[in-house]
Amino acid sequence: MRTTARRAVSALALATAATAVLAACGSSGSSGTDDGKATGSGGGSKTVTLVSHDSFAASKSVLAQFTKETGYTVKVLRGGDAGAAVNQAILTKDHPRGDVFFGVDNTLLSRALDNGLFEPYTAKDLAHVPQDVQLDAGKHRVTPIDSGDVCVNYDRGYFTAHHLAPPQTFADLVKPAYKNLLVTENVSTSSPGLAFLLGSAATYGDGGWQDYWKQLKSNGVEVVDSWEQAYNDRFSGSSAGKQAKGDRPLVVSYASSPPAEVVGVTPEPAQSPVGVATGTCFRQIEFAGLLHGAKNTAGGKALIDFMLSRTFQQDMPLQMYVDPVRDDAVEPPVFVKYGAKVDHPATLSPDTIAAKRDDWVGAWNGIVLK
Amino acid sequence: MSVLRTGHGRGAGTGDRRGVQDGAARAARTRAALVRGALMALPLLFFAAFFGYPVAAIVGRGLHQGGRWQFGRVGDVLGDPAVRHVLWFTCWQAAASTALTLLLALPGAYVLARLDFPGRRLLRAVVTVPFVLPTVVAGSAFLALLGRDGFTDSLLGVRLDTSVWAILIAHVFFNYAVVVRTVGGLWAQLDPAQEEAARMLGAGRLAAWRRVTLPALLPSVAAAALMVFLFTFTSFGVIQILGGPTYSTLEVEIYRQTAEVFDLPTAAVLTLVQFAAVLAILALHGWTVRRRESALRLVDPARTAHRPGGPGERALLGAVLAVVALVVLLPLGVLVARSFDTPNGYGLAFYRALGSTDGGTFSVAPWQTVGNSLRFAAVATVIALVVGGLAAAALVRRSGRLLRGFDALLMLPLGTSAVTIGFGFLIALDKPPLDLRDSWLLVPLAQALVGAPFVVRVMLPVLRAVDDRLREAAAVLGASPWRVWREVDLPMVSRAAAIAAGFAFAVSLGEFGATVFIARPDDPTLPVAVARLLGRAGPMNYGQAMALSTVLMAVCAASLLVLENLRTPSAGEL
């Protein structure tokens, strides 16, 4: 018994020691950022902290370029989806976790502004940004960084095989020819799902969209909880959906999904397997803002300027599958070749969205899910 | 029928020693109470700081709005029939999932604990793999198996996706290991001689099992049932993917109200409702188990295992293997197959892509998340073992309501919404002395909150089975409490500790809910990385998500095998 106990103790000791080593690696691994934070309280910090959602991405080389130009290193904190990230920022507004917040879109903008999340700052290259995306042009509390369109995507192969013209507009989707073909997302749990509802409301008006959705429902629209499930499991046009035997050739996704489907595919196909119904789009615009109470305001301003620079703007499309807002940014060839051109997306003012959203979501639940 | 020695419930066994030893016994009891208090101090502190305080902060923020308390909201929310419907569905699906899991996994627990067959250790590790898989990934595999043209459709012509059955089967998939490991851990150490003795005394095989083995196992079955219930009670991804928008649990609603709608008062009320339901379940569990735990004769697991003999045991082995193949291996196989199914035919393209930073999802290559995950999980396991181990040691003797309350407190994190904990951390741990918002420790701390209850539940039935008279004998012979623990308890529980460590490790490796809200610079864990990849369109992203999930499975299985072998071969023998 004695030896057993001793062996057990030594095994435990070994495990503890191993973990302590691992733990030490862990702390040394992040010591760089800790150093940054330590100097961060001073004001002359060389680290600027960007708070964002899980979809934020930028090339290493582009962030290195920023450091080269300004001397600041970017630390990125990502927590949850866009909604969760904005809510977290509001909850911590008296004691913000960083200097700049990126990722509040037009559907959440009023919530962020009403809660006093941001300090005004007029970015350097704002002249290069079209007026129609500058939704806070009067006060400049937020700066537009990218835009993206939520649109119905179609499975090109399905419509060719069935000798059917793919739908192009909201009105097309309720036609009998497209019965039982569309899958969309729950508006309460998915941001493209909400954007699609907002698009229909912008098209048919406050009093008209309910009727439209009743028709969609009787035309067999399927609703799932997340974009991942709609696009990767239910949609027949995506490569993941093909593996998962998805049987819906129409899905609510993004205008940037077609180029995403050909990245990494060799040889390069003539067309993306996915097409975009350009008359069903709702435009989402994402903003960045200088957080109220930021420790490194100078660094934060420099970062916002950088996010509007051509370097960053031209890096975004393949990193986050969004469009640059800068008028002179050149899109990567894969976007030019396979992307869809959306000329007249539906839009709604952030104030309208803020005022109506809860009522609309409630009414939508009653019509579609009950 | 008293093959089993009588229990050591309150007061039992003190009568015969009354008299000369009375004073000494009282002194020993006082000392035991002090030791218990000391043992409880650290776990109490841990739960107060990293669970009670953050959760109170976020619930308080929700209920205290505009300068006053909004208790009126409680009535509003509870009066909503939709909320009552969600509460009802949450409870019954958890109860049904628990029952189904027990039904399918208890035979598995026996086979993996008692029967000796090639590949047993590997199989025990493999059934635990689902435990660490992100629900999104596993849910997708179930959709493929249960949906159109899936396994059940092509074989039986039945589509089970978006039915409750899909949810229940997926819950069995995730929780099979909970029963196999918790119950099997004790079953392997039960002395078969006791059941044999009962049979020799004339009891039939079934009667002997029912009256000897079953009562001995009951505490660990109850512990496993409790954990499965709590896990399925807070189910999120499975419900969302397999249930569709028409099925919703409290967990989904709390997430929606906190992270999307930003209606914190409603979220706070729902969190309190969740607490109430969990406390009710804990009370039920306590009532079931109380006084049924008894000292057992524990022996070396190697001695209890035998080759399957007779057609009955061979049939049982076959049935268990079939269930494991259908419910566990088949879904895992779907995911592994997808990780090799590239747009240009079967190959390793997705795995190669894991090594590059070009994907844009991270500033580090996806495979580096393996290191992050292992590191966080190792630290979380140590925290969970220390906190859970001390708590279990303090809880060995059940005396008084206070201790039962402490036991319940330890289980609460399992039944608490991940978004509540994640957001709570964010607003509570932001000022000295607990300014941890930027610390890497936050991730393992959140993971240990879920791991520690497992440690307690796995170790407690075994610790309580240790005959108290052994401890008393050692104490009478002059051993210090530490020495008693080291010489008596430790050898017996080292197997349970290894199982508990495996659990805590797997839980930490797979923890996603709270981790995703704890934003850390550039060190995402494996499950978070998988979620990020899945959130992007395109074959390369989806394929990498599948490849990374396969890596996660392999890492989990390998870690568990290593942990099992770390165990001293003859531990538990006395």
Question: What does this protein structure show overall?
Answer:
The complex is a heterodimer of chains A (370) and B (574). With 370 residues, chain A is of the alpha/beta class. Chain A folds into two domains: 43-147 and 285-324, Periplasmic binding protein-like II (D-Maltodextrin-Binding Protein, domain 2, 3-Layer(aba) Sandwich), CATH 3.40.190; 149-283 and 340-369, Periplasmic binding protein-like II (D-Maltodextrin-Binding Protein, domain 2, 3-Layer(aba) Sandwich), CATH 3.40.190. Chain A has helices at residues 2-29, 31-40, 60-70, 82-91, 109-114, 156-161, 191-204, 209-218, 227-234, 239-243, 257-262, 297-307, 310-320, 333-338, 350-369, and strands at 47-52, 73-78, 100-105, 118-119, 143-155, 182-185, 222-224, 250-254, 274-291, 323-324. In chain A, strands 1, 2, 3, 4, 5, 6, 7, 8, 9 and 10 form a ten-stranded mixed β-sheet that branches. Chain B has helices at 22-63, 72-79, 81-114, 120-128, 135-146, 151-156, 164-187, 192-200, 205-233, 237-243, 250-261, 264-289, 301-304, 310-340, 349-353, 368-395, 400-411, 418-428, 442-465, 468-476, 481-510, 513-517, 526-534, 539-566; strands at 64-65, 68-69, 341-342, 345-346, 430-431, 434-435. In chain B, a hairpin with a 2-residue loop joins strand 1 (64-65) and strand 2. Chain B starts with 21 loop residues before the first helix and ends in an 8-residue tail after the last helix. At the A-B interface, helix 1, helix 2, strand 2, helix 4 and helix 9 of A face helix 5, helix 11, helix 16, helix 18 and strand 5 of B. Chain A: This is Thiamine ABC transporter substrate-binding protein. Chain A: Residues 1-23 form the signal peptide. Chain A: It holds the Pfam family SBP_bac_6. Chain A: Keywords: Signal.
